């Protein structure tokens, strides 16, 4: 299969790896985007610290100083309410370079913009006949090359890549691997499930795929062979071959395989939508690792819940309130909690669809099953907090649906989100 360039979010090359070295070398060296195999795009510019009053038409007018523009996309930064960021794609690299040299560090409206080249990675060209695996629980030192080497010996392997954190430039702890044949992808999943990569066992699942226009159901776990491709924080058809399902009335990825609920074994979570995970990661500070799950059947027990919740990572603490129909799960990492929230949104459990969101982080936790009893007044206060969280979650879901609709309207085939803090 031929390869083409697709942009990827990573920090600028000049600013990665300049951190001061401590006198004591860590036992595990975290991977970063540059050493993970990223290269700069010569046609796509990242524009940071953009005034929120600027729309895409105005931005296009400013950047036409370089030449003809192919695409413009403004993104809302949920971590910074005072500024947005954007990507500007040119037809020619010469034009992009002129705009970079002319506008970088200049004041546009009320803000001084920071402009740099977006980053990209080598990816297989868009092909409907690809099958994608979600690979979770990656160690911090696993980069693109390490992930590719772990899977490249399997037949019909196409590509593998780690998802990078736009705040730090480090790994988000998960990635994706693509195959040209569904059966071979299944064999790779079976063989590598629980396999230790750099000292940490892998958790593998099918990446979500979108239902096709005819409304037919996907084949076993693999999903239909068409859909809107997600560009790892980018936008538009083509690019990274991970299918992005739009939210349906139930909030689940269209075409996702329903989880079996036979009493003979633990529940199996559905495939995750990588774009939804990325969005969920940005909805809460990185220090927050607690997921909230509501609308739990009152007769559901810890034995029903914990095996399901352990699919997403190591559980540090678990609090279940059967009378309120909710629980809180503190995971080892922020990313694990985000995957849990996305995967279990509207997940069917004993006749009810679960509701999920970020939980309120506490200053301290007791070990599981050793929580001190709480006075009624504190329980009432927590119940009010839970209700407020649910209302906020509904508002966030509506906003996310609007953002996804906007991203689907954008027609760029190559775009990326570099690390804003490194600009």
From TrEMBL:
Biased composition (Low complexity): 223-232, 395-408
CDD domains: RRM3_PUB1
SMART domains listed in its UniProt record: RRM (SM00360), RRM_1 (SM00361)
InterPro entries in the cross-refs: Euk_RNA-bind_prot (IPR050502), Nucleotide-bd_a/b_plait_sf (IPR012677), RBD_domain_sf (IPR035979), RRM_dom (IPR000504), RRM_euk-type (IPR003954)
Ranges of biased composition (kind: Basic and acidic residues): 383-393
Keywords, comma-separated and alphabetical: RNA-binding
Domain RRM: from-to ranges: 43-120, 131-209, 289-361
Coiled coil region boundaries: none
Keyword Cytoplasm: no
Pfam families cross-referenced by the UniProt entry: RRM_1
MF annotations from Gene Ontology: mRNA binding
Region (Disordered): 1-34, 209-240, 364-423
PANTHER family, A to Z: OS02G0815200 PROTEIN (PTHR48025), RRM DOMAIN-CONTAINING PROTEIN (PTHR48025:SF1)
Protein name: RRM domain-containing protein
